Amino acid sequence: MTAPYPQSALAGAGPDAALIGQLGWTMTIAGTVLFVAVMFLALRGWRARRHVDTRVWIIGGGIALPLVLLTALLWWSLATTARLARPSSLTPLRIAVTAKMWWWEVRYTDPATGRDIVTANEIRIPAGRAVYLGLTTSDVIHSFWVPALAGKVDMVPGRVHGLTLRADRPGVWRGQCAEFCGAQHAKMALHVVALAPGEFDAWLAAQARPAPQPADAQLARGRAAYLARRCDACHTVRGVGAGGTLGPDLTHVGGRRYLAAGTLATHRGTLAGWIADPQAIKPGARMPATRGLEGDELRALAAWLESLK
């Protein structure tokens, strides 16, 4: 598993992030230069206060110098931000992202059938191609932020805010909800995975398929446990059970890098721990503990979910 790049606005991996980083560094350097210059002039003026015209120092160092520098910075910052990509729903690849307490629903459109392909907490995109994200929320205000790829965009109930996202190269970048949204705000992460275009097309085609059939007896027991415990009342596994929508779609959950919005790496052990007692891992999460599910039944269910890739 490739480790994610650091969650940092100082290591831009897309055109918008590079511009934002350039803007931040320029403002920091210019502000430092201005501060040092004003302090230097103030010190010179204090030492020579009996021999200089204070009006020259006040007008020159206190008004003219900051005014010229700040005006230049304002003009340059406006010109730079105007170069940021403007959201356009005409972008060929459109992805709908809905923030929920405290996870992310990600919805693609199958190019072959026009049907929705739903996943969670992970946004896969083709490297080198712009994608349009339609950002909204189903409950409180959240904020979408993947600092290495783009700026922060608020997600407001009843509205869809657009963001054009592009990764210059394949890789994994961590993002975070950047607006306090409740008890588990700190554990509401997401990952953007940029794939080579051909690899992305193959992944999207695989995501459109229903869950694979159990390959052995243990996986069949896990599938039976999923139905017997009524997991399908809240979750969807396409082709299995009723298909609830309160929780994340689990059709291909085993192929995701993390569980519970970036809280746990995905493997059989973490799946079992999360199913048995999610409140111990993420207190306040909407998923209740599964009472009485343990031993072979729990291991079989975790193994079956891990196999859904």
UniProtKB/TrEMBL annotation:
Residues 90-206 form the Cytochrome oxidase subunit II copper A binding domain. GO terms for cellular component: membrane; periplasmic space. It comes from the Bacteria. SUPFAM superfamilies: Cupredoxins (SSF49503), Cytochrome c (SSF46626). Residues 217-309 form the Cytochrome c domain. The keyword Membrane applies. Belongs to the cytochrome c oxidase subunit 2 family. It is found in: Membrane; Periplasm. Keywords: Copper, Electron transport, Heme, Iron, Membrane, Metal-binding, Transmembrane, Transmembrane helix, Transport. This is C-type cytochrome. The keyword Transmembrane applies. One of its GO terms (molecular function) is heme binding. Signal peptide: none annotated. InterPro entries: CcO_II, CcO_II-like_C, Copper_CuA, Cupredoxin, CuRO_CcO_Caa3_II, Cyt_c-like_dom, Cyt_c-like_dom_sf. It catalyses: 4 Fe(II)-[cytochrome c] + O2 + 8 H(+)(in) = 4 Fe(III)-[cytochrome c] + 2 H2O + 4 H(+)(out). The chain crosses the membrane at residues 23-43, 55-78. Its main location: membrane. One of its GO terms (biological process) is ATP synthesis coupled electron transport. It comes from Pseudoduganella flava.
